[in-house]
Amino acid sequence: MQLAVGEYLAPYRLRVPGGEPFSGSLAATRSGDVVVASVRCDVPVQADIDAMPDSAYHITLAPHGSCRVLADDGPVEWGSHVVGAGQRVRVLWPADAPVTVVRLSRRLVERVWRDQGGRPLTKPLRFTVPLSPLAVHTRVWETFATAFVASRDCGLLAGPASAGTRFGQLLAQALLNLQPHARPQPVPPRPLPAPQRAGTADDNGVLAVPAPVLRALEFCREHAHEQLAVADIAGAAGMSVRRLQAAFRTHLGTTPVEYIKQVRLAGVHADLQRIAAGASHETVTDVALRWGFTHLGRFSGTYRAEFGRLPSQTARSAPPGAG
Description:
Layout: H1 2-8, E1 13-15, E2 24-31, E3 34-41, E4 45-49, E5 56-61, E6 68-71, E7 77-78, E8 81-84, E9 89-93, E10 99-105, H2 106-115, E11 126-127, H3 133-138, H4 140-153, H5 161-178, E12 181-182, H6 211-222, H7 230-237, H8 241-252, H9 256-276, H10 284-290, H11 296-307, H12 311-316
Antiparallel strand pairs: 1-4, 2-3, 3-10, 4-9, 5-8, 5-10, 6-7, 6-9, 11-12
């Protein structure tokens, strides 16, 4: 179940507070940017994560207020809740009471945000943790979750891509319109350090590239955890896909896809070094999944080609000056 939770939801660390043998199951339905998962535990299970992936938001539906959650330094909340985007979370899933989790990708939510007239975001939206009273009273999320699973099971979402896309947009609209949130203040564009092996830099290590390319780089770094398409990057930069690819070749000497891979590998490498230094208790699998590497065997080979060693070797290595 640990691996299934990591694959469909987030790389939580699961444990049974009372030390009893653990047993449970997870049934997940996925279509595009949406996952609906039913978590069933035979004993109470505590799930911890130091930082939720920036790539998604989780709407947890707990029957009869049976779920307990602590997000960041906020108060302990009971019942249905919303978390995501870098939050430190501890949640207690109840025994013998299935909990439903709706996972919406950040890419989807922010695309709908922009479609509704919101300005481009440089940081994730932060939602209040307790599910809004209106959503609780109307049980709208329970209705959506049931309809999503039924639509997927009978093939309604397997046909034209637009069907699943519209359903995802409806869910994102519900999150944006029903759940209170505070939008971060926009941050002015800033020069970005040159990525490894991509382009040239001045004496300060800053790339001299046009503003649209800087926007593309910023978008890649902000959304590196997500399954980005080149069209998403081009849209953020305000360029066509063909112009974006040409600009990356001209100014960076690489492609958008290769640049994203470099950003992800650099993030993985830094997180593995934190594990080696004792600053994090994540596993190599946790880190790989959080950075979007879902095929672990292929990830190990890619990491080794980049850094000359396996991810597990970096995670076990002593920090400089140790010993």
